[in-house]
């Protein structure tokens, strides 16, 4: 039998923060708009992760909601949790069966992809460098190769950049970031994979990747679509770069 997790003590500010992130809740699920800079799980240092902040929603003596998937620390957007064990099991199986549909938006440089709509079907492999993990493109017959497929669509282009919509059909770590870098269109602010730190004179403070929508089977039946609008910093950059 699994030992129950010990609740994390949260400050009033942390509780207020995580409660302010809620975009949808029902008896089965809780969805939040994760800000950039907050680790989903397994963060290092003194700052609590989103997984730990979920203790703010735990009823006395009960478990906290469980994360169904993760977002990179510097990626913002919709993240889904299950409030009950049956919901967690149902959603976990749906995720494994690829019944989730994820939609992202990203600012890329130096221009729109060619063609403007397409797919990137390139295997990836994990590579460790010290305490850091990277993903690299590799040949299909590489012993560590993992199949990876991403779809993209150009929404708007401007001098030196473009706004694209992205749909990963597989869920590899850093998949969208590596695939876009592979085609010579890295995501702005992506230091790890060659993204620009300034575009048209505008500084890029972070990775410009946002999980804007998530569609999935609901434990009670049917499909549910949840959306999180672009955060203020990314929306402001989109406007300044003429990508509206």
Automatic annotation (TrEMBL):
Domain spans labelled Pseudouridine synthase RsuA/RluA-like: 28-182
Superkingdom: Bacteria
GO molecular function: isomerase activity
UniProt cross-references to InterPro entries, sorted A to Z: PsdUridine_synth_cat_dom_sf, PsdUridine_synth_RsuA/RluA, RluA_PseudoU_synthase
Protein name: RluA family pseudouridine synthase
Family membership: Belongs to the pseudouridine synthase RluA family.
Keywords: Isomerase
PANTHER family cross-referenced by the UniProt entry: MITOCHONDRIAL RNA PSEUDOURIDINE SYNTHASE, RNA PSEUDOURIDYLATE SYNTHASE DOMAIN-CONTAINING PROTEIN 1
EC number of the protein: 5.4.99.-
Pfam families in the record: PseudoU_synth_2
Source organism per UniProt: Phenylobacterium conjunctum
